[in-house]
Amino acid sequence: MDCKMAVRLITPFIQDELPDEDTEEFLNHIQHCERCRDELEMNYIIIEGIRLLDSGSDSFDVKGAMDRAIRSSLRKLRLMRLMKIARYSVNTLIMLCLIVSFLLELRICFS
After folding, report:
1. CB contact burial 40-49 (16+ within 10 A = b; e otherwise)
2. Helices then strands (H, E): number in the chain?
3. In this structure, is residue 7 part of a structural domain?
4. Which of 70, 22, 14 has the alpha carbon at shortest distance from 47?
5. What pTM was estimated for this model as a whole?
6. Looking at the domain assignment, is residue 95 inside a domain?
7. Within 10 Å of residue 1's Cβ, how many Cβ atoms?
8. 29-81: per-residue pLDDT in tens?
9. Domain that holds residue 57
10. What is the count of structural domains for the chain?
11. Dist. CA 42–CA 65, nearest whole Å
12. Concatenated DSSP letters for 72-105?
C-alpha cells in the first residue's frame, strides 16, 4: 500500500468502517511509515477530539485512544485469522471423516 492510499483510508479506519482486508494492509503501512502515522494521529485527534468534546467526557487522551484502537484492530485481525484457520481445520476433518466412512461402507459392502 502506498501513502496516498493509506491517507485515503484514515477516516474510514477511525470511523471503524474499513473492511478487514484493507485494515490489515493499512495497519501494516502505518506501522512502517512515520509520515502516515503522523497523519493518522492528526486526523484521529481532530475526529475523536470533537466527538469527546460533544460527549462532554472529562478524558481527553486522544493519543492513547488511537493506540488502543490500533491494538484492538490488530487483535480483531488475529482473531479473524485464527477463526479462518479453525474453520479450514474443521472442514478438513469433516472431509476426512466422510472419506473414511465411505471407505468403511465400501469394505462392508464388498466383504
Report:
1. bbebbbeebe
2. 5, 0
3. yes
4. 14
5. 0.70
6. no
7. 18
8. 999 999 999 999 999 888 887 877 777 766 667 778 888 889 999 999 999 99
9. 3-83
10. 1
11. 13
12. HHHHHHHHHHHHHHHHHHHHHHHHHHHHHHHHHH
